[in-house]
Specification:
It is built from 15 helices and 6 strands. By secondary structure, the chain is of the alpha+beta class.
């Protein structure tokens, strides 16, 4: 069965004729998207993983309404013996200062927690000590009482009395990453101020981990995203040897990403650990489309066609296969929209949208810019015909047994490490293992 074909030349010629309105429209949409995109925030709260009507989320929010908080941060105080007047004074002071840390719901430590005390055959509850002891004998009496309490040992002190904890609950108004960062900064400042020779203070807990996750993720994004773009930029330049080709490829990726992030911001969707992959996905898809167009366009020029005819012929050949490639990719990503995890569901339709934007830009913005860009000189075209890349492609593309064997062997060398890595993948949800051992 032969599928009917459409004559797309009139459409392509119309696109070229309307290149000025197309460029103005792309610039306007990008400017509006940028206005929204710069307001995007990062969200690491547990709520984002659930749909609004998820029963587990309803139960979780009911829990918070009843008990006020579920995430805790800990300031650990370590010494040879925490039951000395000096260390107990530090614990008492840290407890008082932690109450003033942003988004602190409540604070517990051995200086303010009630313990069971007996008097006249009755069991009552009272503070472990009302005032910080002045002498070591008084501190030893507190130690004896504390280590005899099963509620304190293993919770607020260790069994040998060499460590104590100040536990700070995170309030509901600090569940976002900004609140956790503010709490983490406040607790770290307290720990730094109260550090003494022989007394070490360290902070831990889920707000601290989330704060570290955000800071390291931001640092990595500032390093690896530009590095990725730079690698693609260098590869595109080595292939085409033209800065205009690099600029066109990067523009499509940046515009498509900006449009997607602008929609995210306008809809109130925050960036999370899943959606950060949108940029990499757009980079892969967007560059692939543009590289196909540029390669075919330069091939047409090598054969002696005029730039306008070269653009029309290239787009006519490529628009159908690129359309089906992009749309099948988008449909595959849309399949994620049935996930029960909200970040995965949002990523599915946002990624599909980003792929669609990249396709639209590839066949509207790219030809409009190409027609305005200066075509390569005859010397450049002749040099491309004799270039290393051309020779490699001609050698590997020959329909001979030798070239087929070479391609097959090279493919095995590339696939083998991937298969080994795939078999080595393990699953787990311990957030501490997200970090290198040196910084845990």
């Amino acid at each position: 069965m032969i599928l009917p074909t459409m004559d797309l030349r009139p459409l392509i010629k119309t696109i070229l004729r309307l290149r000025a309105p197309i460029l103005i429209t792309v610039a306007a949409i990008t400017a509006v998207s940028f206005f929204f995109a710069i307001r995007l925030d990062f969200d690491s709260s547990i709520d984002i993983w659930f749909l609004e009507d998820d029963p587990d989320l309803v139960i979780y929010r009911d829990f918070l309404d009843r008990f006020g908080a579920d995430e805790v941060a800990v300031i650990g105080i370590f010494a040879d013996n925490v039951f000395t007047p000096e260390v107990l004074e530090i614990i008492d002071r840290v407890t008082a200062e932690a109450r003033n840390v942003p988004h602190a719901y409540n604070v517990r430590s051995i200086s303010n927690l009630s313990v069971a005390v007996g008097s006249d055959g009755m069991v009552d509850f009272g503070p472990l000590f009302k005032e910080v002891p002045k002498t070591q004998d008084e501190a030893d009496a507190i130690r004896e009482k504390a280590l005899a309490s099963p509620f304190l040992v293993g919770n607020l002190i260790n069994k040998d009395g060499a460590a104590s904890a100040v536990i700070v609950n995170l309030a509901q108004d600090g569940q976002d990453f900004i609140g956790k960062m503010e709490m983490a900064d406040g607790l770290r400042a307290i720990a730094k101020k109260e550090m003494r020779p022989g007394v070490q203070l360290h902070v831990a807990g889920s707000p601290i981990i989330d704060d570290a996750f955000y800071r390291y993720s931001k640092r990595d994004a500032q390093i690896y995203v530009p590095a990725t773009f730079l690698c693609v930029l260098i590869i595109v330049f080595l292939v085409f040897r033209r800065l205009s080709a690099v600029a066109i490829c990067m523009s499509v990726v940046l515009f498509a990403s900006m449009w997607t992030f602008g929609i995210m911001s306008a809809m109130g969707i925050l960036v999370n650990v899943v959606s950060v992959a949108l940029l990499a996905l757009t980079l892969a898809v967007g560059v692939a489309n543009v590289v196909h167009i540029l390669a075919d366009y330069y091939q047409e020029l090598e054969e002696g066609f005029e730039p306008n005819k070269a653009i029309v012929d290239s787009l006519e050949r490529l628009i159908t296969p690129c359309f089906f490639t992009s749309m099948t990719t988008a449909m595959g990503l849309l399949s994620l929209s049935v996930s029960d995890l909200k970040p995965v569901r949002d990523f599915g339709w946002l990624a599909a949208l980003s792929v669609t934007f990249a396709f639209i830009l590839s066949f509207t913005f790219v030809p409009a810019v190409l027609r305005l860009a200066k075509p390569p000189s005859k010397r450049f075209i002749e040099k491309q015909k004799r270039g290393l890349m051309t020779k490699v492609l001609e050698m590997t593309g020959r329909p001979t047994k030798r070239s087929s064997v070479m391609v097959f062997i090279a493919s095995l060398f590339l696939i083998a490490p991937g298969v080994y890595g795939l078999m080595s993948i393990t699953t787990g949800s311990n957030p501490v293992k997200f970090f290198k051992k040196a910084i845990r």
